[in-house]
Each structure stands twice: as C-alpha cells, then as structure tokens.
Fold this protein.
Amino acid sequence: MDRSELLKALEACAQCSCGCCKDGCLIYGTMLEEQMSARGRNSIILAYLKGQIQPDVRMARTLYSCLLCRLDEENCLARIPNADICESVRQEFVSKGFGLLPEHVPLVASLKNYGNPWMQPKSVRGRWVRQAGISTEHQSHTLFFAGCTFTMSPELTAAPIAAAKLLMIADEDFSVLGKDELCCGSTALRLGDRKMFEDLRGKNVKALTQYERVVTSCAGCYKTMSLDYVFDGSAPDIIHFTQLLSELLESDKLRPSALDVKVTYHDPCHLGRQSKVYDAPRDVITRIPGVEFVEMKNSREHSRCCGAGAGVKTASPQISLEIGKRRVEEAARTGAELLVSACPFCEQNLKEAAESLGSEIIVMDVAELLTMACMQDPV
Ligand code: SF4
Ligand code: SF4
C-alpha cells in the first residue's frame, strides 16, 4: 500500500473506531493489550505516519505481534485491510532500520546464506526426494514445489513424500527441484524485508517459468506465488496440491479405499481467508469412503489461526503454542480422531500443541490422509 492508501484506511478506522476487530483476535485475546488489536495498532501507526510519535522498540513489537491472519477483516464493517497495513509498515520499518525484531534476524540471514529460513544447508532440502524414491533428473511440464518447511523439518517430510506417492499412483508426470529449490520468499515478505523477497521472487520466477504448471502443498508458497508474485513473462498455472487431488479424484485417477475414521479440517489462513480455497481440501477428505467429516465451530472464513504465522512463532513461541492449543481443543471437541490441514506451519504448530496438551488427536496433512486410503487394498 502506498502512503495515501495507508492514511486513507487508517483515518477510516480512526473515524469508526468500533473495535469489532478485537472479536476473535487471538493475539488480543491472549495478551489483552489494546495495542495488540488491529484498532490499537492502527492508531499507533497513524500517529507514527503523522509524525506525532517516533518509532521505537515497543512499536516494533506491536507491529510484529500480528499473525496477519485476517480474521479481524471478516468482522470489520469498514473493510479496513489491517494485514496489508501491517505488512506495509513492517516494510517501512525494515527499510528505515527500525525492524526486524532481533529474533527474526537469523531467519533472514539464513535466507541469504542458504535460500531457506531454517538455517540448514541446501543438501537437507534434497533428502525427502531420495526418501520418496524420485529423481531431480526427470523433466516434466509440471513442477511439484515442496517448500522449505515441509522439506527441512523431519516431523513434516511425510507430507511431501505422501504427495509424491499420490502423483505416482495417479500416473502424473512431474519434476522436483530437490536441493536446488529456493524459498518462495513468504517469510521475507511477511517480515517486511521487501528487498530479500524481490531477490527470491526474481530467482524463482526464472525457474518456475520453465514449467506450464506449478503445484505446491504449502499454503504459504501457494499464497505467495499466486497472489504476491509478479511474473515478468508468461506465468505458469499455480495450484495448491489439494486442488490437484480434487481433480484426480473426480477423474478417477485416484481411487481411495475406505477408512473408518472421524476427521476434522483446519483451514490454513494462507489457503483459506487469503486465497479463498475452502472447498478443495474438504472435497478430498469427503471423497474418501468411510470417512466421517466434522467441521469445527470456527471454520472456513471464520477459522481460527493456528498461531504460527507471520513471524509470531519465532518471536513469541509461547503465545503461538497457547493459540495452537486452543485450536487443538476446538478440534478435539468435534470428537475427531484426525486433525487434517494443508500447510506445514499449521501442521507443525498444531502437532506441538497436541503434544503439549497430551491430546490423542493426530495431526496430519491432507496428502497423508489420502495416501493411507490409496495405499490400501480396495474393498
Ligand atoms: S473493526 Fe475495523 S474500523 Fe473498527 S476499529 Fe477495528 S479495524 Fe477499525
Ligand atoms: S490479523 Fe489476526 S492476529 Fe492480526 S489483528 Fe487481525 S485477527 Fe488479530
């Protein structure tokens, strides 16, 4: 957003000042401090843009407290784009040297040194490819883009491996980049490091335009590539893996056997509210015979964030865990045995939350659930 758009939106919020954005805001609900709500944060940003207050550490902490989950925007009758405001001002803070938070600095240094935010050498990124029994040599018009977090966190690699298995079962031709895959830039963009984001975007656009179609299981990569990327030439089709799975099930290329299990689904903010992909994951789950699907009280547009987004987990892990625990408790109240999602950040945080609660609910990716059904003998 440019400065005049920012000022217009912030003035509109100040005039309304209703505070409906606090309803359901998990950060405000956890911290109970006005400046951690969209209304409070907006009034501070407005004062800063008008030169009434100077940027300081407290203001930076306020800016980086937001999950950018956009739940508040569902409740805001004035339709104030609070997440875009926050993201824009984070960028200004970084460019003027007032951001990042110290906790975020290693993530951005890692993006520069290794092409991923998790301080791991590139070779780690290629491990899942060997585990899945596929090769980076094979060339296809479709690229499966696995993403940093799914490939570099040992507790999450089952998801891209399951995705590759499903593509092979469906006889879909696809390429993978293995250790040569680079971060999509989502982390840099959400933290406000525009320069780093543009660097990663430029390199990725060059690589992705070699393909007609790019499929990713990561909700953050999907949102970033489909909504935040500008392609210089002809853009490939960017689709989320659940959308492809839905098509493969519809065309009978995947024929799941029955699973006797009760399942609920957590909408990742990047896939749901931000990209409006609500139906595809539900379609995949409900096409598995025998699965009893139950919605949580807060789902689709009203889904609660897992608590891990936009750098909050790195800066305030305890707050992320508390928010994750609330979501796991909500899932458990449905009586579901499985809590399924479609994003590595959600899966990771919800797994940690379930463990911390001692909950019996099992957290997994949609691809893992469908692989269980497709690898069984037909009944
Ligand atoms: S609901 Fe919207 S207009 Fe009202 S205070 Fe919150 S952000 Fe401002
Ligand atoms: S985007 Fe989410 S965390 Fe941030 S103020 Fe809105 S509801 Fe709260």
Summary: The chain has a mean pLDDT of 94. The two ends are 55 Å apart (CA to CA).
